[in-house]
Amino acid sequence: MAPAKLVAATPLPKTYEDLDGAQGREVFFRPQRYRAQDLSPLNCTVVVRADDLAVECSLYNVSQNGVAFELPNGLSFDLGDVVNDLEVRFDSHVAFRGEARVGSLREIDDVRIAGV
User: Fold this and answer.
1) Which of 42, 56, 84, 102 is most buried, most CB within 10 Å of its CB?
2) Is the pTM of this model over 0.70?
């Protein structure tokens, strides 16, 4: 009787839990941000509806995680505020319409920026 041949087993695909890599604070992933000028010649705007008024704001940057926009005079938010009606527009195309939560407020070169 001939000896049995050993055949290497094909490894099973790893599940998410089986992956090796960084853990905890070592994990860092931040999607690419695109500034309005990176998207030229598109006209990129954010429209916020507050008190039945539509306020058009200049887009500062956009990513998979959210959008940042310039706050014009007369429009202000606090961290954690929910914006009930927000639109992100590229020319006439509405890429997002819905609710957003204010996650950051900052000032860059005397321009107030809200991140949602």
Assistant:
1) 102
2) yes
